[in-house]
Amino acid sequence: MRWSPLKQFTSLQVFLLLSVLGLLAYGQTVTYPFVHDEILSIRDNPLITRFDWNEIIHGTGTAVLKSGGSSALNAYYRPLLELFYRIEYALFGSNPAGWHLLNILFHIANSFLVYGLMNMLCDHKKGLAFAVAVLFLLHPVQSEAVACISGISNLLFAFFVLASLCFYLRNSIISRVLSLLAFALALLAKEQAVVLPILIVLLEMMSPSSSPRPLTPRAVRIGGYFVVLIMYFLVREILLPEGAMPAVALDHELFLRALSIPRTVLMYLGAIFFPHDLHYYRNVDILRPNGVSIGIFLVVFAAVVGIILKAPRPHRRLLLLGAGWFGITLLPVLNIVPLINEYSLILTAEHFLYLPLFGVLLFVLGLGDFFLIGMPERRRSFLAKGGVGLPVVLFLAMTLRQNACWAGEIPLFECTVRFEKDFGRAHILLAKAYYANGRYIKAIETYRRALTIMDGYLVKVGPRPVASVYLGFIKEIHFDLAHCFEGLGDYQEAVNWYLRALVIDRNDAAVHNNLGVGYINLGDKEKAAAHFREAVALDPQSVGARENLEKLLRFQGSGGE
Question: Of 409, 429, 446, which marks where a domain is finished?
């Protein structure tokens, strides 16, 4: 894939070209607001307004806050991300434009590191390196990591992983030290970086015989990365509270998760090769039959192995690197650690593909480079430009369209439920977005759909303890439906839904308080007073319930009480 103008391009010119394309693809996101978890964990999170090193080191500063203001247990250890959020807040405050712009700049920088890494891996074939970098930059599957502000965790850890590998391949003592430091920073940004030592082993195995003689023995070079990894796990063990990460139990659920891995891999490959159904909260149902997907996976695996074995030695190395990179970087997100969204649905998010995409691009373009060998120069150049140029134009258009999903919570969750029709929480989130925008009828329709799904989950789980989770969702839906009917002025129907929520949990002070307001609207002050009193008894710190009760008592002439 030799494109003659690239031979004269300097690294700065390549970086500027990637910058123009990156800003063209993602520039629209600078106008987008905070959405979903970003509202609680960034915009409304008082913890990131201060540089508290204890919170940063222990990784507790960006735990998603509950509605009452208390901090939920953070399931990850990402102190570098904690620090980075504080730096961003110091720079941009609550203006999402700066946060979005920094995401774009990191993505451009990562694409340039891909270009540099490819040059070192492919004996400075600038055409092939640039093709991989620009497709990595523009592929629409990257939208979730770049257009979503909280996707910075993927951009940050990938930046340090790619930098670590580039330093490693420079073959000097200083570069090796910088490589180890970059690896440590990648681990502190996101756990997915744990696979980098395996990538180092892969690179060592695939090194061409013409490579310069290394300065240190292979065992020493590789061993340093495993030492850093062991130190990372020791720090996690010491600093993280017990139960912060879910345990991997050897049970039937683990077997089902493992059995669903072929379907998960095929889903990921489908999102890369046919990115027509990209959406937030992508899931795999581990209870669905896996026979067909296992068969297809084995066929695909056999085809990949066959292609690699038939390729000549120089291209075989590239193909092995690509396939190995994809498999290795995907290992941490293949559902071994339970990441269950609801009932049997396992999270298979598109941002997990941010780094693995590089391996697929390396394999596909390396294969294309092999097929172009032996063709006349002019035909080879024409096919290379067309084979890369057409996807570039197509990916750019698809990325611009996909980014629009992040323009607000309504488009985000409308896109989600279009593809995840049986994912109850997505319907709840969409209904909340409709309600926040005053679209009460649409909110009611969506809440009713969510209620049907959650009732179905409840039937499936039966009397097991996890049923309380779905009862909590059902109570929340009843509560929010009452809000919607209040918005429409139908106070009797609102009271009916509050009463249904009360059947699930009679000790919920918020339901009693809102029910009291509902009875005020219906003119029944005796029932209102009873529920206000119950709310205060259940939660003496509830300022709203105390004020409501006081106002009602003053109105009734019982100011003394």
Answer: 409
How far is the C-alpha of 151 from the C-alpha of 551, rounded, in Å?
Answer: 46
Domain boundary among 391, 409, 427: 409
Q: Are 319 and 308 in contact (CB under 8 A)?
A: yes
Backbone angles phi, psi at 494, to 5 degrees: -60, -45
d(CA 272, CA 328): 17
Rounded to 5°, angle at Cα 478 from 473 and 484: 120
DSSP state of 76: S
pLDDT at residue 502 greater than cutoff 80: yes
Q: Specify the pTM.
A: 0.89
Alpha-carbon gap, residue 390 to 399, rounded angstroms? 14
Q: Which domain holds residue 511?
A: 410-555
The verdict on 352 and 417 lying in the same domain is: no
8 located within any domain = yes
Pairwise pLDDT comparison (559 vs 105), residue with the higher score: 105
400 and 454 share one domain: no
How many structural domains is the chain composed of? 2
Q: Which residues contact residue 214 at a Cβ distance below 8 angstroms, ignoring those fewer than 6 apart?
A: 171, 221
CA torsion sign for 338, 341, 346, 349 is negative
79 located within any domain? no
Give me the pLDDT at residue 254, please.
Answer: 79
Question: For position 440, which CATH number holds?
Answer: 1.25.40.10
Please count the residues of the chain: 561
Residues 6+ apart with CB under 8 A from 254: 248, 336
- pLDDT tens string 152-196: 999 999 999 999 999 998 878 899 999 999 999 999 999 999 999
Reduce the DSSP state of residue 341 to 3 states and report it.
Answer: strand
In this model, does residue 246 exceed pLDDT 60? no
161 and 216 fall within a common domain: yes
User: Which percentage of the chain shows pLDDT scores above 90?
Assistant: 57
Does 349 share its domain with 468? no
Strand order in the sheet with 345-347: 283-285, 345-347, 340-342
- Do 308 and 161 have their domain in common? yes
Q: Which residues are 71's β-sheet partners?
A: 65
Average pLDDT, the chain: 87
Structure tokens, 268: 């990921």
- Which of 62-66, 244-248, 346-350 reaches the highest mean pLDDT? 346-350
Q: Are residues 320 and 446 in the same domain?
A: no
The reply to whether 393 and 466 lie within a common domain is no
Q: What is the pLDDT of residue 251?
A: 66
Q: Is 63 within the bounds of a domain? A: no
Q: How many CB atoms lie within 10 A of CB 242?
A: 6
Nearest Cα residue to 67 out of 540, 509, 467: 509
User: Both 150 and 222 in a single domain?
Assistant: yes
| Segment 473-495, tens digit of pLDDT | 999 999 999 999 999 999 999 99
In a domain, 72, yes or no: no
